[in-house]
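[audit] Reproducing an earlier prediction to check determinism. Same input, same settings, fresh worker. If the tokens differ from the archived copy the diff job will pick it up downstream; this log only records the rerun itself.
[audit] input (126 residues):
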Amino acid sequence: SVNPKGYCTFQYIESEADIFDVLLNNERNDFFYEQLYDRLSEQLSRFYTVMAESDEQPKVPLNLQISFIDSALLGLISHWLKDGMIYTSRYMTQSVGKMLDQLDSNNILLLDFFSHETEPALQDIQ
């Protein structure tokens, strides 16, 4: 389940909605999207390194897991912004947790990433 502090990611995006909307939902800002994608990939990779057992081999290659989660999260954020953030940041985090729980398996540790605060990673990009 999602840690109550986990909503910080969506809360931060909500507090900076105008900036994120322009940066994510403008075709001329592909550079920002790529930077955000790369930064999120780095954070997910670091998280996996810390959380995984040293001899553990994922059933799905880590790079595929990261690409899947990066694309899904950034797409969801983009649409949330386009739709006028009709759901609260807490609701968005809870919903992401529920969706990812449906995909959960013992070898996909990256799902726990969303239950931790990732605001600092997003701040570094701006």
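[audit] rerun output stored. Observation attached for the diff report: DSSP finds six helices and no strands in the chain.
[audit] end
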